[in-house]
Amino acid sequence: MTVSHGEVIMLGAVLFFMGAVCAVSRRNLIMILIGVEVMLNAAGIALTGASLYWNALDGQAFVLFIMAFAAAEVAVGLALIVYSQRRTSSVNADTYNLMKG
Amino acid sequence: MSGLYGLVFYMLAAVIVVSTGMAVTRKNQVHAVVYLINSFLGTAVLFYLLGAPLLAALEVIIYAGAIMVLFLFIIMTMGPGVSEPLRLRVRQWVFPSMLGFFCVGAAGLLVFRVRESGDGMPVAMASPAVFGRFVFERYWFAVEIVSLLLFVALVGALYLGKKEDSAAVEIQKDKP
Amino acid sequence: MRTILFLLVFLPLAGALFHILAGRHVSRRVVEIVACSSVAGSFFMALSALPALKQGPLRVIFLRWFEAGDFHAAMDVYYDPLSAVMALMVTFVSALIHVYSVGYMRDDEDYARFFFYLNLFVFCMLVITLADNLVFLFLGWEGVGFCSYALIGFWYRDEANAAAGRKAFLLTRLGDVAFGVALGLVFVLFNRLSISHVNAHAMELTAASATILGLLLLWAAVGKSAQLPLVVWLPDAMAGPTPVSALIHAATMVTAGVYLLMRLFPVVLMSEAALSAIAVVGVLSAFYAACAALAQKDIKRVLAYSTISQLGYMFLAVGAGDVIGSMSFLLSHAFYKALLFLAAGCVIRALHEEHDIFRMGGLRGRLPAVFFLFLAGVLSLGAIPGTGGFINKDRILVAVFSHPDGAFKILWLAAVATSFLTTLYAFRLLFVVFLGRSGQSVEQREIHPMPAVMIRTLWPLAFLALFAGFVNLPAVWGGKEWLAGFLGGVPGTVPHLHVSPGIEWFVAMSDGVVALAAAALAFVLYGPVQATRWRAVFIPAQTVRDFFLSGFYLDRLYQAVLARPYMELARILWLKVDEGALDGGIAASSRTFPLLGSVLRLWTTGRLSTYLLGLLVGLAVMLGLLVIRFYAG
Lengths: 101, 176, 633
Prior knowledge:
heterotrimer; B: mainly alpha; 7 helices; about 0% strand; globular; C: mainly alpha; two-stranded antiparallel ribbon; 27 helices
């Protein structure tokens, strides 16, 4: 017997919102991406816990795909950051406000 | 048994949470990434605890090993650059933090109302062979899609990373 | 017969339509011919309709206009002796004045518009004269008011003329409100709007409703006939061309008020209070206007106040119960007043639009024909014994004197006093304009040539002015009172005043003495030789003269008490309420929208972090709702 499902989910929740706060309140583009990574990881934890609870492997398969997807997303995202840093020489998210209304 | 597993779980949870907390509050990006690697390692062990050894391995290889290293590469490449000021303005993080606390509280209320805690989960382990067979039997299509996705990401990253003048030079060369 | 009556009423309308549609595209001569012949045609129709009266009064419906339940509005006429006589007078005088206008307006370029309004006016006046349905009469009533407004302000390019027209219209409108109310009241009381029906059933009215109806009709008549208190528009109405003044403000439109009272006399007869009110209004207006006329300097204004005064006599006669006396006085007055106005028009034109009588004088030698014509009119106006005017005024005074109500003796005294003043101002006018010296030597001024038609049309009027009254010569002096006999069939009238010859002689003598004395006084004061001692005694101080000249300052009183507060109220409502509160309120409420927009604009910062924060907020809201749902639901 290990911990209850609820506790695993709570762990996932805590991590998720930590990542969310990081993504929202930091202005450095890299740090925002890091926040996203933390969120994805938290989702993976919750899914694995659910997979154990329901005794099904679908949750773990989903985590596998999340990891793959996260890799792809980070690759493209970082490429974008490099590209825009080359253009505007700034990694501060506040400088990209051309859509200001 | 549950006591031991429970203890391990809480230790791991502490490690993960603390390192994640450190990661998100660092000014230095490299420090943040390293803390995050730490967090991912903890997560890998947690996966093993929760009965997914393959995922644990993959977490270390892909997440900590590939993604975070990529982060480091990019951080080094870009150099210090214009970043955020040394101290974040208060109003930048107060409101999101409050929201975060509120959300965690709400989640706690919801979770422990719906799922009565108390009964622990039975321990199980999915061996890599069983897991692999499962994935390729049930989710083979998703695997193909994900490989396509990776390919697209590759192409995109290549294109975005190209230097601009070289692309112009190549086009010039093609003209008769 | 139906055709004759139809042509009688609608020929002038046809003329008016011709003028408004084609007037500017045909030659001047054609316009003049159409105008005069349409009215002349009406006159001949009026003449040829007369024999039909032997069979009694006639009611003819031309057109059913609209109906709503019991409320029938139709274009119908009631042809009885009263309306026959009135129609004859209206068409005859109108035709003469149309011919006169051909000459008077010879230099004016707007002749098509002028004759359009003039013909339209004649049509509306004939509608008033002959209509049986009260709604149809109201159409004519309003129509004459409109034509009067248009013709007073005919030379509209001068602001003062337009203002005078507006003033006339507004004041008669005040009276017309009472007419509308009376119309409704008649419908409520009788359930029919036909004058003949109302007259036939007038006996069924209670005294109270008869009083109300009578007072409403009196107020409407006061507006139209320029009696107190709605009197101030007539002197200003002299801004219009002189033929207009002669036709509308002497012979026809202003008499429509009295005519209405005469037409509905059986109703008025049912109420002692209404009759007394009519008489009092009449005598007060007569006295007021006679005083004012004494001090006027403008030749037309003297005649305007004189008209008010004479109309007061007609009101007095109706109030005393003598419709026939009032009617014959009306006829006589129409002739001599029109004559006086038209002759004044000749003088004005001859002296290049000069209106001030103290800048005239000695015209007897320069314009002899006009002098005799004017003299004829003045003799009749002043009721010198031996003229038709004297006979008619005498009959009214007898009726008032012999009225059973003793209070009428006071009215008689006032009427006699007014008579004195009337003769006085009439002869004053004659002497100042035509005799003696003037302020500016007339010999040095060149006389503007006058079309002969202007003078030729006046001779018939002069004859009628002097002698038309003789159709009503009382038996005491050998006459037959033909007019009284003719009108005797009209309901509510008293053909023969049954008074003793003694009273007849007494009243006649007193009136004659008064008239001759006034004429003599006028000669002394204003004649060729002006005796300064007499002048010092009889001519009052400048302040009194100014008081009379301005018409007892009534204009200023109305301005201060009615017009100015109303304008103030309008201004306040405009600035404070309309622009301030309403517009301001709407503007303020419309400002909230940009305000809301600018609040919402805070979201569109263009920064990534803001949008991510939005996502987080949304997530928090959803979680909160879920919690609420799970814990409360």
